[in-house]
Amino acid sequence: MATTKILYIEDSAENRMLVRALLAREKYTIVEAEDGLSGIEAALREQPALILLDINLPGIDGYEVGVALRSFPMLRGTPIIAVTAYAMEGDRERTLVAGCDGYIAKPLDADAFPRQVAEFLRGKRERVDERKEAPFLRELNQRLVYRMVRQIEELRRLNEHFVRRAGQLEALHGAVQGITSELDVRTMLEKLLPALGRAIGITQMSVELTEPAGLQVSVKSEQAAQMRSVLTEDGEANQEWEEVEWVLPLVVQQRDLGVMVVHSIVPAGAKGDEEQLLKIVASQVAIAVENARLYEGVKRQMAELRETQSQLVHAAKLAALGEMAAQVAHEINNPLTSVLGFASLLIEDLPSDNAMHEPINLIVTEATRARDIVRDLLDFSRQRPFVPQEVDLNQVLKEVIGLVRHQGIHGVTIEERYAEALPVVEVDPGRMKQVFLNLAHNAIQAMPRGGFLTVRTSAAPEEVMVIVTDTGTGIASHNLVRIFEPFFTTKPEVSGTGLGLSVSLGIVRQHGGTIEVASEIDKGSTFTVRIPRPGRVIDAEPLGCA
Q1: What confidence tens digit (pLDDT) does each residue in 96-121 have?
Q2: Three-class SS of 44-71
Q3: Exposure of 129 by Cβ count < 10 A (0-12 exposed, 13-18 middle, 19+ buried)?
Q4: 331 or 127: which carries more pLDDT confidence?
Q5: Per-residue pLDDT at 130 exceeds 80
Q6: Domains along the chain?
Q7: CB atoms inside a 10 Å sphere around CB 409
Q8: In this structure, are residues 467 and 419 in contact, taking their beta carbons and an 8 Å threshold?
Q9: Under 8 Å CB-to-CB from 416, ≥6 apart: which residues?
Q10: How far apart are CA 198 and CA 212, in angstroms?
Q11: Model-level pTM?
Q12: Which of 264, 338, 475, 504 is least enclosed, having the fewest CB within 10 Å?
């Protein structure tokens, strides 16, 4: 006989042990998670009957976990109960507006706790008085936005670091432009050292590097013997000249790259001046070595810089959209629920021949569309984890097309061509259904006068492909590069939010895949979804082509 499953998200091992002991007597199955992220994953995986949530969690706190859990449709009916030692004024209300259905204070009452849990399992729910809810919602919103701002600031800091680094490397490249055109460090040194030796008049010079370890390059002046002849005069030491050895560190930004050893014959008393000159030379050699080593690194860092800049822009959009979506959900979802509920009751109570059926059905249709717009906004603003499974995309598509056929296709003929023995892929089936359903609906909407919708699958060594083709109105070439942008739509103003393809692209990319589109006006469009087979990677391709 299956037992009731309860998830407890708590970072304290002692508290988890206590709750497990108290609830084990009641024959509950306890699933544990020690932080917010693993708790969210466990909730999606285990589908518990009740979630006990500590608020003071490391990383993301219980308020954020509550909001995240409530964003998943599969968990919306699951009661979430805050179990916390927070005892400040308003803590109960803060947990409830964050998505919790109840509040149990610590320390736990060993006798009362099982009874409290049973009451919530039987349907008990606590709510905040609507008249007092607004300030707590604002506080929660500010908390979430503040966390987003902190993440944006961290990305901005990284961006500034990469910009500075790129500027430094560009300046280094200009300083020794003629030297670092050779990417190989040894070759560069073999060309550089003789030129330096001739310029400053040394007898011998060598460079030994620690990065790359053990690399050593030495040069010796062709005039070394002739230069040494000045050290003696008539068989005796010449006091006007001396041979000196310098060991100079090669340092770039306080990091040791190795040493440069120089032997030179200098006039007596000129050792100090020569040493200053050689320090400048050593500095330039170090820069040349660093440039040669990091030349390829520049390209990599510039690519990371562009990615960071893109993340900054996207994060800023999401911060604003997340705040707006929370307000929209609160202000619109409640009245929409009432409108839909009462409209459904009216339809049930009306005689089948009553003339009011048509206007009431129109109310239901328009309210449902408004609710879907809110849902699309929330889908776009959230970064939700997905749970991959080994899935046959043929089966996923058959279920999607079955749904499409039942929703009315207005003169559109659907043709299904499924590859035999299609390899399985690791995807979240629910998220992929959302992608294919969006593509199918877009195709049907592009054929208001009817046409043909073809859905087919195929496999390649690296990937599995799903191709959705319609014979609709097509997409203008200047719009192809924009159709995946948030809020961009080619449909009439009342037909969509412009978020469907953006959300779909995000889902496919989260699975390591790509979406490509080809279209021609008055002939139709083809969307190709590529999903990598397990253990493979797809190189990113252009999203749109004429």
Answers
A1: 887 788 888 888 888 899 999 999 99
A2: HHHCCCEEEECCCCCCCCHHHHHHHHHC
A3: exposed
A4: 127
A5: no
A6: 5-128 (3.40.50.2300), 175-303 (3.30.450.40), 386-545 (3.30.565.10)
A7: 19
A8: no
A9: 397, 398, 401, 454, 455, 456
A10: 26
A11: 0.38
A12: 338
